[in-house]
Amino acid sequence: xxxxxxxxxxxxxxxxxxxxxxxxxxxxxxxxxxxxxxxxxxxxxxxxxxxxxxxxxxxxxxxxxxxxxxxxxxxxxxxxxxxxxxxxxxxxxxxxxxxxxxxxxxxxxxxxxxxxxxxxxxxxxxxxxxxxxxxxxxxxxxxxxxxxxxxxxxxxxxxxxxxxxxxxxxxxxxxxxxxxxxxxxxxxxxxxxxxxxxxxxxxxxxxxxxxxxxxxxxxxxxxxxxxxxxxxxxxxxxxxxxxxxxxxxxxxxxxxxxxxxxxxxxxxxxxxxxxxxxxxxxxxxxxxxxxxxxxxxxxxxxxxxxxxxxxxxxxxxxxxxxxxxxxxxxxxxxxxxxxxxxxxxxxxxxxxxxxxxxxxxxxxxxxxxxxxxxxxxxxxxxxxxxxxxxxxxxxxxxxxxxxxxxxxxxxxxxxxxxxxxxxxxxxxxxxxx
Length: 433
What we know:
There is one protein chain. This protein is mostly beta strands. 1% of the residues lie in helices and 36% in strands.
């Protein structure tokens, strides 16, 4: 099942492009081979549906729009859809990044219910059942700071998702009523931070809901106006019944006060850090290997440096811009494999440091995909993933050892590129996404 997102005369609309032959499948029972219940569809991170048989090279060009939400004649306006919608048994689930609301649609594109989520600015939670008019939204005042930027997870009779306000929710799948929610900014949350958020799409592993996030401090740290850099990326395992935290993994060492503060300089100026080292939010949706009970995910940059010592002069920590493997049963770290060392960066710094001759913000947001390939003629389980340096990497799943990668460009950002890049290069280094 595929859902296409399309811009129309409303701010954002969602259109399902389907063949008429799909009608019977939409009306049928739950079919895990055809549904898309989580961001990557499966726990291996492939984003591939082997059960798809309705669309192929011979009929793809004949697809036509079957329905859209909101309908053309509707005056309903909804916020921006940022993430992959979830489809289970023909029903569609998604949240909006602006004017944060969570929606459930029927197989015919009709609204079944919507959940107007609470915000810290005072908006109260409210589930709007089918048939009741949805409120008219003023997009000039729509909140974006607490929007839903990720896909949901549909398991059993519940729907799970997190938001940029630091809340994680469980809703009743049939009614949209709130079952429970947790607040990653509250004192009850272990390692709470005032700007914690949830940035990974949740997955369901061994009876637990796995979600991740952290403090998005790279947007504000490094200056005299913000004396923080005290956050760390995290991954948590939740009991799906009540939201109880089964285990929590914190990325890297706990930040400590830097006395005196550390100052890093580049051609944009000076950047002052009062705490460090700090690791940014985890925004890579994990994958899971059931055979070894291992979770794999990528990490972001260091948003504040560590203080160098005589035995370790480095500013970065090993956990930044890396792939991490955890025991899914306990949350204990199995190994860390760093891909881009030296990446201490905030948005107040240039994306290319001409002194270091290094591209910055080269984090790994891509889900590590699990598959088996021959390595030295031996079938070997590996992880494949993309990095923001433009490269695709392959690591051995058992220990994180790098097996291969595509060529990357390391020259300065000039045109024409010099030195000329390898023709096998996939993409140039990128920043902010």
